[in-house]
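Try it yourself: sequence plus protoporphyrin IX containing FE, in.
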Amino acid sequence: MDIDAVDPPLLHFYSYNLLLLLLVSVVLFLQHHRRRRSLQVAANGATGPGNHRPQSNPVLGNLVAFLRNGHRFLDWTADLLAAAPASTMQVLGPLGGLGYCGVDTANPEVIDHIVRANFPSYVKGARIRAAFADLLGDGLFLANGRLWTLQRKLASYSFSSRLLRRFSSRVLRDHIHRRLVPFLAAAADSGEAVDLQDVLRRFTFDNICSVAFGVDDDRSSALLDDHRHGAFFAAFDDAVDISFGRILHPTTLGWRVKKLLDVGSERRLRLAIAVVDEYVTAILQSKQQRQSGNSEDEPDLLSRFKAAMEEDEASELGRIFASPEAKRRFLRDTVVTFVLAGKDTTSSALTWFFWFLAANPRCERRVYEEVTSLALAPSREADADVGRLADGDVESEDGYDELKGMHYLHAAITETMRLYPPVPMVSRVAVHDDVLPDGTVVRAGWFADYSAYAMGRSARVWGDDCRVFRPERWLDGRGRFVSAEAARYPVFNAGPRACLGKEMSYLQMKVVAAAVVRRFTVEVLVPAGSMDMAPEHEMAVTLKMKGGLRVRFKNRARAA
Ligand code: HEM
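Structure, out:
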């Protein structure tokens, strides 16, 4: 194996845990041999057509195969699921049932069962919660049960607020015309290559910070200057990557010991979270001072959330986080959760989208024709006073009616995320024994993961051309976009825990794509001939392109 090709968290995984794990495995295997056999017999006893298992080692389960394929984990899982009779498989950790066991699926019926029909039986598991708890605390992402229900209600209410929708579209317009387009125009003029993934990641980070807590106002007051904002961006990235790296440890023991000793990645995580906390605390304080406790008229997400909480002071959530410190901590967790949700998701989709357009000139032409025929009239789009324009928009809630007619663009973005879902895998844990619709047995405490990545590559679901980028598959005879049921396209999750930012994301992705394609051609810089091969991705919370996407922009107006 080429060790240079292994991601740093996986290297970690090898060096610290493998030896320990092998020793412990053998001892425990012998000790628990009996129990393992009885568990297997029980699982097989309840069999239907399911209970498919990839080949596993009697002691180490699927661990060896995992180590061999860890660097291509998503593709490996997709291949295994394609070979499984019902696109669902049981995965055994070491010790055939005592280690980390569960099921993986790319079967729409099974996904629907886990995320919707049998929703209360599948929760966010202890392993993921432990890994991300230091960063996300009690925020919506990690919450289960009553705490999740209460937060979800407030968050749904905040996301649907008319004030927030108008604010987020105004911020978007502002960021595109004041920051993104001028930056790309300068890059086009100079002919310099840029890493488009990095540009988009910074753009969406700034955008979500503004939407989540109106950071622009604070930055202009020099309280939170660009330097501090940049440090926040870097620290947030570190904190997410290291928290994710924790999941790759076979037991939580490895990283817990390092945390206790405050060494290595755990020390870096502590320092990164301290930077995040300092920044968010400054935001909360400045908001508090400005609003004197009244967040009613502020349009950003945090203020909408606070207002909803204050309106409902006697509510359960208010009682749970009753003291000022508990409330401050909870609002901090909420901010961090929203930033995580919006930070790398849309930028991931857009990065892959621009790669697909460059690799498919016919699709790029169709997007260009659509956005130039339907785009905002240049006088409106180029209006320098973007704030006034959006505020004065009464005909449409988001001020972007034109986007609704962009069916091909919508299809191209949707098709991109079918093949490269920004959140490639979602994980749950079964709270009790269950039998999935295909007959696969799930034991209490097992993980139940679904792979949107494998689903997008499933010939059973998408036909023989499942690996081909073909936006037309989403269009009806009249060229209108037709959506798929959520369980067939679980890119935004489905059921009660479906993504709350879906609408906002499509708005952002379409506006950015239209603004760029309309003005520029994007040349992807790769060695000759390699556009036929899709770039590799990193193993991370979101599907990042490995090494970024180096491109050169050309201004269409100049080229004409
Ligand atoms: C292309 C962009 C996006 C995709 C593909 C996406 C996908 C997802 C997925 C798969 C989940 C479920 C995660 C899980 O349960 O483990 C989720 C949850 C969530 N998303 Fe998104 N997301 C996107 C953008 C956004 C944005 C911009 C926001 C808003 C800031 C957002 C807010 C949320 C929230 C609050 C949840 C948690 C819902 C809950 O647990 O009840 N998302 N998203």
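One thing you can check immediately is this: The pocket of protoporphyrin IX containing FE is lined by residues 140-141, 152, 155, 208, 338, 341-342, 345-346, 349, 422-423, 426, 491-493, 497, 499-501, 504-505 (CB under 6 Å).
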